[in-house]
Design goal:
Helix content is about 35%, strand content about 25%. It has about 250 residues and is α/β, with parallel strands linked by helices. A hairpin with a 2-residue loop joins strand 10 (about 205-210) and strand 11 (about 215-220).
Length: about 250
């Protein structure tokens, strides 16, 4: 994002945002409710055009990409996905292969690999509408993983996740964060919106702290997660210590 602002119906939703996400990085977007986090993702992914500034994706303005070409390198998991048809889990994950022409045999193999990555192989033949909320979210995560599972002609691949762990139990929260770190280690760029500051600190290489659509702080976790920043943005007193297991910031409120 280069100098991105967004104004809708005379309301300033985003203002002057500048940041970069490179392959191998994990950017956590943090902020209170109404800070503009989901709005930022809509602009970042090209769903909404910026009022001013520009979004550059793989060296070109994002608006210049054809939707199918962009989808081979950029996958987005929204907060909630409405799907009321009685598809099997495997059929839902197969939707992620829509932009590709890799053939059914390869696509089925990728579906299996993506389900295994999110610990959902046992759900493969279940009807999606009969799953719990957390199970549905894991299936949707597998779908977006399947979308960008394979190399796309050397183009960097990016994964955009809006509150990906909100419906998960503790084990699957940890699995998801470990998966994000693994993907970054393989060269994926990841952008995540998270409410839990300590979860974000476990996997983010950089953080963007938003308040009222503006960047209050942008940088590595140690720079962003300070008692002063937390007080200013969230309005709570906090102590920040070093996590004895990871060395990352540990926020205590």
């Amino acid at each position: 994002m280069r100098g991105v602002s967004l104004r809708l119906r005379n309301v300033q939703l985003l203002e002057g945002l500048d940041f970069t996400v490179a392959p191998g990085e994990v950017l956590a977007i943090l902020g209170p409710n109404g800070a503009g986090k989901s709005t930022l993702l809509r602009v970042l992914t090209g769903e909404w055009p910026a009022t001013t500034g520009e979004v550059i994706f793989n060296a070109r303005p994002i608006a210049q990409w054809k939707a199918e070409d962009r989808a081979r390198s950029l996958a987005v998991l929204p907060q909630g996905t409405n799907l009321d048809f009685p598809f099997t889990v495997a059929e839902v994950v197969m939707l992620g292969r829509t932009p590709h022409r890799s053939g059914q045999v390869r696509d089925l193999a990728i579906v299996a690999e993506a389900l295994a990555a999110v610990d959902a192989s046992h759900l493969r033949e279940r009807v999606y509408t009969q799953l719990s909320g957390g199970e549905k979210q894991r299936v949707q995560l597998a779908r977006v993983l399947a979308q960008i599972w394979e190399d796309n002609g050397g183009q960097p691949r990016f994964l955009i996740l809006d509150e990906p762990t909100a419906s998960f139990d503790l084990a699957h929260q940890q699995l998801t964060l470990d998966l994000v770190r693994t993907l970054a280690g393989q060269g994926f760029g990841v952008v995540m919106v998270l409410h839990d500051l300590n979860m974000a600190a476990r996997c983010a290489t950089r953080m963007l702290l938003l308040s009222c659509g503006r960047a209050m702080e942008y940088g590595p976790p140690l720079q962003v997660l300070t008692p002063d920043n937390i007080r200013k943005v969230f309005g709570v007193a906090a102590v920040v210590q070093s996590n004895p297991l990871t060395g990352n910031p540990l926020v205590i409120t």
